[in-house]
Amino acid sequence: MTRRALIQLTGVTKQFGATRVLKGVDLEIDQSEVVCIVGPSGSGKSTLLRCMVFLEEHDAGEIRIDGEPIGFVTKNGKRQRMGEAGIRKARRNVGMVFQQFNLWPHMTALGNVAEALIRVRRLPRAEAAQKAQAALDRVGLAGKGGSYPSQLSGGQQQRVAIARALAMEPEIMLFDEPTSSLDPELVGEVLEVMRALARDGMTMVVVTHEMGFAAQVATSVVFVDEGRILAKGPPRQIFLEDGHARIRQFLDNYRRRNAFWQDAPAEAVGG
What we know:
alpha/beta, 6-stranded mixed β-sheet, 10 helices, 12 strands, 38% helix, 26% strand
């Protein structure tokens, strides 16, 4: 069966001032893959994710979403920035969930989810509300549509943010450290929603420090360090078999801080 590449990065670089954050990244993500991007803080993980949808402009290289370039095109041998309409079109099948929930405080959960359907998709309010409610149902918030963000826990607010992205019916979901702003006891409810999306076949790219989630849910794990991809492979290969010294060092440090890795048998790691 031929696999369909939904995201392709070729030679992608990004620099902030004198600091090169991404150094010639090549990466391909196929339909229905769940790719977890892991690595030390400051390694370029979030920048890599944001470049995928041109929230950060890459300085060189090419990024394609479902075969179409995003951000820049080459015309007459010259690299040219795409117009905003072209960028929006390239993003149309991508949903993104950030560390911060970014909900409108004056809108209910239902209103937050419906807003983009009304403004971007131009749906009538009744239809938008129906789709928004279905998205809330999908993330386990069927009875919270009338609640305002201040009335919701952090985990519930993040699930509203996920519902907001899902309501747009994306083919790809990107998650940038979606649990990093949550109290530990609320992390599980967000990860369970993400597990359900993976079971449904959603193509997902997740920047995360949740190694247990990556080990058990990812089809591929990408290890990033100092702006480069050191390895990509099934969880078992990265977490249990890969011989790269930097990866071993990172995981050894993680194990010392987390009981899951101290006690978990090898069978707990997927792939």
